[in-house]
Amino acid sequence: MPHADTLTVVHHDDTRTRFKDVRYQLHRDGIRIWSADGEHAITDVLMTHAYRQREVES
């Protein structure tokens, strides 16, 4: 299950919902997100932006 430091969900009406430090699963019917606030299921997904900051390995 992917992990994102920041995840932005763009809805069909162009509004955005932002989450921090989450795990998520993309489905045909939308996205399911697990965060410190609990579990979220969003079905009106137009696009997602997930970012993960990783430490540089030497």
TrEMBL record:
Q: Which protein are we looking at?
A: Uncharacterized protein
Task: State the organism named in the record.
Answer: Actinoplanes missouriensis (strain ATCC 14538 / DSM 43046 / CBS 188.64 / JCM 3121 / NBRC 102363 / NCIMB 12654 / NRRL B-3342 / UNCC 431)
